[in-house]
């Protein structure tokens, strides 16, 4: 594959079990910096599980065992890194928009406050900058101190993206970020992702194959816990090398 | 033909629906009327027997009992709210499902259904006899805390568990620690529900008599010009005996009935107690709403 790009994540022989059930089987691949990597596959194929291992959100669930290595910039995230520190570098946007029941401002300021930023002027600046980056500033600038729960679903999701941007992470993980949204909001989030990849590395799980082909640089196809195929998005969608990939992307199952 | 059968079915379903709607309205209004009549009766009866001396802070008025009630509820909340909320947090966020948690749950459930006279006698044994103290407000507050602790624990646990999973995940994914997530996101989000638990707990304190009989005691000797907290006649000394309003009502209706004014005193005390509970509930609700509005929890 392309060698001019920097490797952000290097995953080697990753196996993950929920109790006795093996959810991920010997997954190995690399995720490149400043690209959008899409993870596709039918429900229950392990793509969301895999995404969660990248910032150790799977630590929150009981009975999970994990073998293999995941390296972020050549550092093993499970051995050499603290989960809290990792999550500041690798942030996550969820399927259901999940703003806190606080004001718009407090939602965005939450991350910086955790990092010990207390000065109001500095927080104001971070909040505005993050909201602008997430393309939602114009819509919320007059209601910064009102509840975030009053925003529409699409606005809430962009607010959640702004909330992660405020931490200045290196990687943003998105777990089906548009599946609960209407087409216009979806389009806004996709445009935003394409814009953000200039400065961030993005890994996105999606059920929507058009979405994967529209915005991603590389696509990984998961099936029953296996990584079936991983290639540039153009190649994977035009000339898939595996028959199962072809069947899935042409809509014959899944 | 098919069509008319379907129409009949729909008509029947609609009729049942309308009957049920009316039934629930009826039950609802019954309870509303019942409560209004009951509270109204107590308040009106209390006011009818009113004479100015009742308002004095002396052995002839109920001022001292009024103060004791507030002070005792305050003391018991100071004990039971932090403990109960902490226990609720533990149950919801730190404990692991298993035998220990099941055992703990059974304990809490049993505790919440203990008869208050049992708690009162337990309090007498532990807080009075074992410590060698006299009847005192603190012992009463501790006894009431035993009754209100399970209430606050369960409400807090339920409140935290009923929050959307996304709040916790969202905060953890931003690199927050568990405690930070709990203190800055989860607790503020369920504050209104915890407030409900505190109101119920305080209600227990206001209304409790049996648990206080042998703990807080039935006498009140306070000197309102004595502000030396270590002195047993100082109003603020938590280790002095202090009769509360509900105990006073009971006393006035039993042994105190030699006093010709006893019925009037009891009725007026009851009215004051009802108004106090109402006022406290309102105040707690308004405060909780204001705090959660300030943090942006309400739309």
Provide a descriptive summary of the structure in words.
The complex is a heterodimer of chains A (254) and B (299). Chain A is α/β, with parallel strands linked by helices and 254 residues long. Helices cover 36% and strands 26% of the residues of chain A. Chain A has a six-stranded mixed β-sheet, sandwiched between helices. A four-stranded antiparallel β-sheet of chain A has the order 2-1-4-5, covered by helices on one side. The longest helix of chain A is centred in the middle third of the chain and has 14 residues, at 120-133. The radius of gyration of chain A is 18 Å and the shape is globular. Chain A starts with 6 loop residues before the first strand and ends in a 5-residue tail after the last helix. Chain B has 299 residues and is mainly α. Chain B has a single domain, classed as MetI-like (MetI-like fold), CATH 1.10.3720. Helix content of chain B is 72%, strand content 0%. Chain B contains eleven helices and no strands. Chain B has helices at residues 2-48, 63-94, 99-112, 116-129, 137-161, 165-173, 178-189, 191-207, 210-213, 245-253, 262-294. In chain B, helix 3 packs across helix 5 (137-161), helix 5 packs antiparallel against helix 8 and helix 6 packs antiparallel against helix 7 (178-189). The longest helix of chain B has 47 residues, at 2-48. Chain B is globular. The N and C termini of chain B lie far apart (52 Å). The A-B interface holds A 55, 57, 60, 62, 84-88, 91-92, 94, 96-104, 106, 110-111, 114-115, 145-150, 160, 163-164, 167 and B 96, 164, 166-177, 180, 184-185, 188-189, 292, 295-299.
